[in-house]
Amino acid sequence: MDFDESLPWRDIRGEGYNRHIGPIRFARAGDSEWQAALMLDSRHVNSGGVCHGGVLMSLADVAMGAASFEAGGAHPCATLEMNSHFLAAAKPLHLLIARSRQLRRVKALSFMDCEIWSDERQVLRASGIWKYLDSREPQPL
Question: Which of 8, 69, 108, 140 sits between 20 and 30 A of 28, alpha carbons compared?
Fold first, then answer.
């Protein structure tokens, strides 16, 4: 999957862990589809010399969470459940692109799926459920 420069990319705001692994770029790519991108560097490598699985799962969590946030009208949400399937290794200095889709929304729940690609290889497939939190004012991403 190639990086689509025509999308309205922006950095995801984040402190702590999100800032540590990022920057993560994020863009709406369709009616119920969003993309996130992360350039791998030496911080993301495990002892085997490839991207650590936790980085892939973190990118999937951030991508699906940010997509749920936007699909929910900028209401904060939290991960209730996430399932991940590792399909291939991602190599350092490669760009990861996560494609997230909202499959369904029921009241306060958002059902999501995500594919992460490194070049033309799918490296992870994930799905999850996000819960929209209380009725606080919508927040910027």
Answer: 108
